């Protein structure tokens, strides 16, 4: 039975991948629609100029954090490829989403993407993955938080950041990122970069890359980022209200 399922998956992989992409895109569109409605319902909205200034500051902080405060996870976990960097540029995105709503958080993510794109070393692939993860996580977490603003909801939305982040990262790496790099740089070159992963070879590279690199890396980075957001948001919210 298991062999039959495995054979079916292998023979229909292209259809499965296309279906997953379509489902993910539909889910993202639905989230954007809900986000737009949720943000429009937020009461006591600050003046537009004040809001725009804070969004600009958070966008600048997001870019600065991406370029200047990061380190490779491979320093701590030797089986993780060196090109996977821990950074905290999503923290301002979530703070913006918590302060103003999911659309404002999404705007910060898009601004970061646009600013990063000209200096991309991955032909925009890494930046696009960061954008998709940023949009998916800020939409879900901000919609959840703005439904009922309290400590319990803040904890739940922070946990949602981790769950959505990890799922999105797995799908992005499986369906797009790794296949794109292999078509661009060659299978052997990319596989060579993944040889730090125990037991990896041409027959199991995708599974082991996801299990040993993608999942651990994204658990660590999403946990750190969501934890920092939870600790910083309330303090920054109090300061913002006093301005």
TrEMBL record:
Entry keyword set: Cell membrane, Membrane, Transmembrane, Transmembrane helix, Transport
Keyword Cell membrane appears in the UniProt entry: yes
Keyword Ribosomal protein in record: no
Cellular compartments annotated: Cell membrane
Main location: membrane
GO molecular function list: riboflavin transmembrane transporter activity
Spans through the membrane: 14-36, 57-80, 92-115, 127-145, 157-177, 184-200, 206-233
Protein origin, superkingdom: Bacteria
Membrane-topology descriptor: Multi-pass membrane protein
Cellular component GO terms held in the UniProt record: plasma membrane
InterPro entries membership: ECF_trnsprt_substrate-spec, RibU
Role, per record: Probably a riboflavin-binding protein that interacts with the energy-coupling factor (ECF) ABC-transporter complex.
Family: Belongs to the prokaryotic riboflavin transporter (P-RFT) (TC 2.A.87) family.
PANTHER family per record: RIBOFLAVIN TRANSPORTER RIBU (PTHR38438)
Protein name, UniProt field: Riboflavin transporter
Gene: ribU
């Amino acid at each position: 039975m298991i062999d039959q399922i495995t054979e079916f998956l292998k023979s229909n992989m292209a259809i499965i991948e296309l279906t997953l992409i379509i489902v993910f895109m539909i889910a993202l569109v639905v989230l954007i629609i809900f986000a737009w409605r949720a943000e429009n319902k937020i009461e006591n909205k600050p003046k537009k100029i004040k809001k725009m200034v804070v969004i600009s500051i958070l966008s600048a902080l997001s870019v600065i954090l991406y370029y200047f405060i990061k380190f490779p996870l491979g320093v701590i976990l030797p089986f993780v490829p060196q090109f996977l960097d821990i950074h905290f540029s999503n923290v301002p995105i979530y703070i913006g989403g918590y302060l103003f709503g999911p659309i404002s958080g999404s705007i910060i993510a898009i601004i970061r993407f646009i600013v990063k794109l000209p200096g991309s070393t991955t032909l925009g692939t890494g930046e696009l993955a960061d954008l998709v993860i940023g949009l998916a996580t800020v939409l879900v977490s901000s919609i959840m938080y703005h439904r009922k603003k309290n400590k319990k909801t803040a904890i739940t939305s922070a946990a949602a950041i981790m769950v959505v982040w990890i799922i999105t990262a797995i799908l992005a790496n499986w369906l797009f990122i790794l296949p794109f790099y292999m078509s661009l740089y060659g299978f052997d070159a990319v596989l060579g970069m993944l040889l730090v992963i125990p037991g990896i070879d041409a027959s199991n590279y995708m599974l082991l890359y996801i299990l040993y690199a993608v999942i651990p890396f994204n658990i660590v980075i999403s946990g750190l980022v969501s934890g920092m957001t939870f600790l910083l948001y309330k303090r920054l919210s109090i300061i913002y209200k006093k301005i």
